[in-house]
Design goal:
This protein has two helices and six strands. It has 119 residues and is an alpha+beta fold.
């Protein structure tokens, strides 16, 4: 089953990549490497993709109502945490997905199954 893990925020709400020191940034990158290695060690799971995202203030929101398209700047809604990135993982079940995503310790992660009924 496919799961997407949204990297919603950091466990430390005061942390920011831009203000983090070299050691903190290296530790964060090590967590991404540990996640990738944990997935690669499992024969029943595959990392299908993932990307870092720019800050929410660079977002464009598209709304379409009655054929009229409206674009607005900024994230979809006001939130204290934004989505910093995502990983798409193929794992046999949620327990395995949770085990693997747990390697990304600096983050709060929202895990959702991919809806395969819409295709």
């Amino acid at each position: 089953m496919k799961y997407i893990g949204f990297l919603v925020g950091y466990n430390d709400p005061d942390y920011s990549w831009a203000s983090a020191g070299e050691a903190e940034q290296a530790a964060e990158m090590d967590a991404h490497g540990a996640f990738t290695e944990a997935v690669e060690r499992r024969e029943d799971s595959t990392l299908l993709g993932g990307e870092a995202l720019t800050d929410g203030d660079s977002a464009t929101v598209l709304r379409q109502v009655d054929g009229d398209v409206t674009l607005t700047d900024g994230p979809f809604s006001e939130a204290t945490e934004g989505i910093g990135g995502f990983y798409l993982l193929d794992a046999p079940n949620l327990d395995v997905a949770v085990e693997l995503f747990a390697a990304l310790t600096p983050y709060v992660i929202e895990i959702r199954p991919v809806d395969t009924s819409v295709s």
